[in-house]
Every structure is written in structure tokens, then in C-alpha cells.
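anyone seen this seq b4? input:
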Amino acid sequence: MKRHEVSRQNIFLMALAFAILGFFSLGCGSTGHKVKTVEKVDVQAFMGDWYVLAGRFTFLEVDVHNGIETYSWNATKERIDVGFSYNRGSFTGPKKSISQKAWVHNAETGAHWKISPLWPLKLDYLVVALDKDYRWTAVGVPDQKYLWIMARDWKNPDAIVEEAVNALKAAGYKADNLIRVPHQW
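predicted toks r here
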């Protein structure tokens, strides 16, 4: 019985967190200008594992080590299945995972998705910077409050984050106050 109660509490807290995130993603607290996405994302090339290296995270992404975001195309449902896994608190901390669903919102560019951490929420998920060879990417939200810088490889994170930050600044996206995600494999 106790486990069931904890589960309901966690679901409630997650729903509340994403409702707040959704509220801000709708433009409240907006920077006053539209966030520009990259011109084109080859969605199939984007699929696979991405090591989360740095960002401005939600309060659910606290004390993350070895963070990996995995995107898998679900042809049957015509959506992207998203999995985020990490060790909480340390490299040997408990393994945690969060599953989400995403849909390509702008089929012309492939750079604007809607992501659902919990039904019925569908939040904006914008590819705001992307290496031409898909070595790294930066994903954000319309009000620029959140940002995730990810790479295909966890090695040499400083150089990758610096390259992504420069691209973000050139695109007009805030790239300050970043928290680094440590990796050890």
C-alpha cells in the first residue's frame, strides 16, 4: 500500500512540474522574440543516444551523472519514443529513467517537436543548434528558460559545449548559467 501512495505522490509532483514547465513554454516569461530553430533536422539521423553534457535543467534533473537521452522512431505510432536515463547523485548512484513521447510538430524543418512527459501535456521542444555532422545538438524552449546541450560522445565535453555555446549565442539563444553533467564510463 505504501509503495502505491509514493507512486501517486511522484506522479502528482511530476504532473505539477510539467504543468509549470508547460505554462512557461507557452510564452509566459517570454524573451520578447520568437526563438529560431535550426533550418533543417533529419529526424532519422537525430535518432539514437545523446550524452547530456550541460544545460539549464528542470528541477527533476538535479544531481544527474551519466545522463543519456535516447530517441527512437516509433513507426507504428508515428512518434519519437524518448528515454532519459542517469545515475542520481554520483556515478554509482541509483539508476533512474524517465520515458516520454514526442511528435514532430513542424514537418518542414523537423526542428520543432512537441514532447509529452505526461498526458495530456505536450510541450515545445526546439532544436536551436545542431552540428552539421550531428556530433552535438542544443535543445531549448520558447522562453529560453531550459536548455540541453548533448553530444554523440561524452569525451571532450569542454570543447563540444564551447562550440555549442558559440552557435547558441550566434543564434540569439541564451547560453549562460549552464550546469555541467559529469560522465564516467
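The chain has one domain: 2-180. The mean pLDDT is 87. kinda curious what u guys think
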